Amino acid sequence: MLIRSEQVRALSGRIKPHWLAIILFLLFLAGLYSYHLATGFTPERAAIQIPILELDIFWYAICIVAGIALGATVVAQLAQQRAIAIWQAQVPATVRERPLSTLSLPDEIQQILTKQKITKLGELLLRWGYNSRYLGLNEEGLQLVYEALLTAPGVSESWLHDAPWRVWNPEHVWSGIGWCLVLGLIGARLYHVFTPSPSMAAVGIESPLDYFRNPAQLINFRNGGLGIYGGIAGGLLGLFIYTRRQHMPLLGWTDLCAIGVALGQVFGRWGNFFNQELYGRPTDLFWAVHIDPLYRLPGYSQFETFHPAFLYESLWSLLTFALLFLLLRHHAHWLLAGDLTALYLIFYGIGRSLLELVRLDSRTVVFGSLQLAISVATLVSLLIVIIMIVWLVLKHQAKTGNHVA
Question: 2: pLDDT confidence band, cut at 50, 70 and 90?
Fold first, then answer.
């Protein structure tokens, strides 16, 4: 049965723009890969060329930036939902629904607040609790609003000085993302530097020492690469610094960020498709990715199709994102602070260990003259999975964590 146009418009009105962007991007990538399977065509690495500026914008960068932006937007939405839930639990409905006019504020201030769609006392308290500077008032105006709120019936003074929903202000996502991205990039690069893949020998990098013998290579990203575990560690350090400075709960925020990171990886991994890199062993499976001769690893020039390792990781990340999101949405009462973070690391560790079974060009573990038949990524993944499982079990047995709000 056909859906009426009115129903379609009503449905689209309920879908947030970022969810629509996520769906459309996934459909675009699915269509592109279907076309690739049918024709073997892979777009050029540069998506946009600007001759006047001698500037190329690469698909790899588009995928990463889009993944970061969409992931951060979802995290901001989740933070706002948590803030509103606390605000609704703390502020009685009788106070929230009271008209703003009951505060007897000067007309000029009333007009400024009304332009920001603040017409009720509860809306003002929510925004004030986030950060009173967001109200667009000068010092005198803020003081007048503060005095009016302080004397308003039913308003707690604690809401004006350090509202319990302040720590979930969605603007923290955009204020703190710089710390996470910069330190995440540094961490990802350092992880690669200390564990360079065997194919780096083609550009003179056979061990970490080769990077330090030629320091210019440390910042030469054209030859690859970035390591996800280093990026996670660096991003976590950035988040620690920001939450410490803002007096915010670290584990609560890592839980939300884990959901955003999983979504970011869904799209970020497609950069490997456009770059024709990090593919798996040769295979004739119908979903195999076609690699042009120029990008085939030494010893594999006679093969044309390979396991699409990037696609496996993207789909695994999509599954991880969906599970974490649904757990937070429907089972928040069961979760302790840090649970989603641990589950993300467990899911990713398991997925990465499975992925290493088909991936090429992974550095193996070496102890002196002893070389083990296991990749560094697999060893790191298994250690993280074990540690996170033990931590989850002990934490839930002791029940010393704080439940998610």
Answer: very low
Q: What is the torsional sign of CA 314, 180, 322, 12?
A: negative
> Which of 236, 222, 243, 241 is closest to 184 using CA atoms?
236
Cβ neighbours of 47 (radius 10 Å): 15
Is 80 exceeded by the pLDDT of residue 10? no
Mapped onto helix, strand or coil, the DSSP state of residue 247 is: coil
Q: What is the distance, to the nearest Å, from the Cα of residue 126 to the centroid of all Cα atoms in its chain?
A: 26
Angle at 60 between CA 55 and CA 62, to 5 degrees: 75
Average pLDDT score over the chain: 87
**Facing residues of 146 across strands?**
none
Show the DSSP H helices in 116-156 as ranges: 121-130, 139-151
Gap between the Cα atoms of 33 and 42, Å rounded:
9
CA distances from 156 to 8, 62, 113, 161, 167 (A): 44, 47, 21, 10, 18
Say if CB 109 and CB 145 are below 8 A apart.
yes
Q: Lowest-confidence range among 207-216, 264-273, 348-357?
A: 207-216
What is the largest distance, in Å, between two alpha-carbon atoms of the chain? 80
CB-CB contact of 163 with 125 (8 Å): yes
Residues 311 and 316: their CA atoms lie apart, in Å, by 8
* 87/166 Cα distance (integer angstroms): 9
d(CA 16, CA 76): 13
Q: Are 376 and 352 in contact (CB under 8 A)?
A: no
Q: Are the beta carbons of 90 and 275 closer than 8 angstroms? A: no
Q: Is the pTM of this model over 0.85?
A: yes
